[in-house]
Design goal:
Largest sheet: 4 strands, antiparallel
Strand content: 5-15%
Radius of gyration: 20 Å
Strand order of the largest sheet: 2-3-1-4
Number of strands: 4
Order of helices and strands: EHEEHEHHHHHH
Helix content: 55-70%
Length: 189
């Protein structure tokens, strides 16, 4: 007689869209011993069963760039407040959007001061744009490459990374920075 399979229900952190859920689902389904897996983006949960250990499941989820939520993280995610303050607080709680918020603020300030006549600050725009691409774009590219290499799937992360790289290649560094900023903030929403 076959022993009953292990059954797990885990809350996933770091999913931004349904595409992320599909990537996780396919990556976990490839593990030896997994009989069934379902990832729900809306509830941020992974349900899996089979002859596979919990540490193997968690390891695979982390290997492709996501994490397992803790109870403290779940409580934090249920807090809410209204208006602009609540919106900014929500964005700040998203670990991957913090650098985007900071760099977007610096870029806007740099452009505003340049327009206001502080021409000497114009020299800061290029380095700030490159820093934005490096700090925000590299994790996006890494996530896209993990999806491609581990799951054999072209994800939106990979496409955004290619778009940013293409923009840099043709000298449109500001546009590349804008693409990665807007993508990151959009994903946080």
């Amino acid at each position: 007689m076959h022993e009953p399979a292990n059954a797990y229900r885990l809350r996933i952190e770091g999913m931004d869209c349904a595409d992320c859920a599909l990537t996780i689902e396919k990556a976990v389904a490839q593990l030896d011993g997994v009989e069934a897996v379902s990832v729900n983006f809306t509830t941020e949960t992974l349900e899996a069963s089979g002859d596979v250990g919990l540490d193997v499941l968690i390891g695979r989820v982390r290997e492709i760039g996501y994490d397992i939520a803790t109870d403290a993280g779940a409580a934090l995610a249920t807090e809410s407040s209204r208006g602009l303050r609540g919106f900014l607080s929500f964005l700040w709680r998203q670990p991957h959007s913090r650098p985007a918020i900071l760099l977007a603020g610096l870029l806007v300030a740099s452009f505003a001061l340049t327009i206001a006549g502080f021409v000497m600050l114009e020299a800061l725009n290029g380095p700030l744009q490159l820093a934005t691409i490096a700090v925000i774009g590299l994790p996006i590219a890494a996530q896209g490459l993990r999806s491609l290499l581990l799951v054999r799937r072209i994800s939106i992360d990979l496409l955004i990374a290619i778009a940013a790289l293409g923009a840099v290649a043709i000298g449109a560094v500001g546009e590349a920075a804008t693409v990665v900023l807007l993508f990151t903030l959009g994903e946080a929403l």
